[in-house]
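Entry 14. Two folds queued back to back today. First construct below, sequence then structure tokens.
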Amino acid sequence: MKIAVVGTGYVGLVTGTCFAESGVTVTCIDKDKEKVARLSEGMVPIYEPGLEDMMRRNMEKKRLSFSSDLKKGISGAEVIFIAVGTPPGEDGSADLSHVIEVAGEIGSALKSHAVIVTKSTVPVGTSEKVRKAIAASLARRKSRVTFDVASNPEFLKEGAAVEDFLRPERIVIGVSNEKTAEVMRNLYMPFVLNNHPIIFMDIPSAEITKYAANAMLATRISFINEIANLCDLLGADINHVRKGIGSDSRIGSKFLYPGTGYGGSCFPKDVKAIIKTAHDNGYELKVISAVEKANEYQKNVIFNKMAKLFKNQFSGRCVGIWGLSFKPKTDDIRESSSLYLINKLIMEGVRVRAYDPAAMEETRKVMGRKVFYAADPYEALRGADAMVLMTEWSEFHLPDLKKMASLMKGRVIFDGRNIYNPEEIRKQGFKYFGIGRR
């Protein structure tokens, strides 16, 4: 079986590589010729565990290739995935211009029947727009080539995307006929040997499922953050509360970890998009709108604790930051709470020294020389009035507190992910501030 994936971003590259691993012949297509050249040399542009080795292995076996020529790349493909970006507009809506542009190009190049699958996260109605764009291009060519459309939203966690694709909890596919369902069922068969389901549904339902899932997870994060903030005021410990409610089978413990707010490429964008979709249809999503508002507040929680401790006297201080990516095992800094905090500190005249195992180069592209980029975690603390843990990378979990004390000007730790034992920290002479912890 031969397929094509248009777009070599995070979703497209993982999708294409993992399908190639199952024995499918895959061409990944991108209009960026320099990026295609680097990919063709086996250079992975993103940090994702396991992806580089798998990509190179399948390139060597001639199952995975890269091209900037869409017409050539989709030739003979039975399934064509559209996996280009849908960045948020100023009003929160998803920008579909790249998706529709690619659809039109597919219609201009299609020579034989294919299933065109929207893999990008898109609002309800996008697959119909894709169908119309392809049909219009075919009509201009006076071509009688047939095609079908489908929606196949991704549910990949950054840092675990390869594992998520190879061993999915579920696969959601929106189709309009059984013929398309059969094609997609055959394509995904190698990935459901773990007995997890392929869930077929109508296309609009599939399109909204992705947004609904991310909105639900974002809601859990904002909920536990709100309870943690209340614990701060009442002298309770959020870790005890989290265990107490998480043991209820109706609630569960996943996504009940307080912190400094959700970030990344999906949750912020998708929450905004589903709110905008509802608004455009005359309905207000009150709960999800509150989730977004709560998250904006939570991004300030560490800054507010610092302001209280330092009595708003920030100028001339130095702060060491551990963690720049929005979560561990990725170099993605989009909507990162760490960068949000860093920008606020810099505006207050604070010197920032930072370290991250993977996201330094991405941060440098955005922050330039505003930040000192340390060679290791401890160098980031030299002369610091305080250390702030913002991303729970594994190498930060067991710090050398004595070494930290010898390097830092002030003995203060702000634990934005609640990974440390407050008593152990305090025994070493540090002041400790977590999220909702006594």
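Second construct, same run, same settings:
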Amino acid sequence: MVNKALLIGRLGADPEVRYTPDGTMVVNFRMATDLQWKDKNGEKIQRTEWHRIVTYGKLAEICSNYLAKGKLIFIEGRIQTRSWEDKDGVKRSTTEIVASNMQMLDSKGQMRSQEAAVDDQTLASAGSESAPPDDVPF
């Protein structure tokens, strides 16, 4: 079975940082993707879909340091639905993308000066922490 999501879109707000009880960094943000088409009259119609993204560990650190509202990014991850009861006893649920990889897609000219200091090696390591080392013997 496969559970994979691939998205390209823009952040709707700055990332929010929090920590799990064991100290693992968790970063959440919303991202918008657009679908465009023409109706039967030839008029352009656009629909925006909003996605909740969650990142953990090293990828969360990178997202918190370099992402901001409006940034164009690529996200790869899995779809997850969670349910809980709020403080009033109302059952709530949400569907989110648990990211395993992120790439910034804005051109270097649109980056803030601190982001320009990030090298390709740092971005390449933004994937899942469980990725195998480069010295795999095959």
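Quick look at the second one. The first helix runs from residue 57 to 66. The helical segments are 57-66, 113-116, 120-124.
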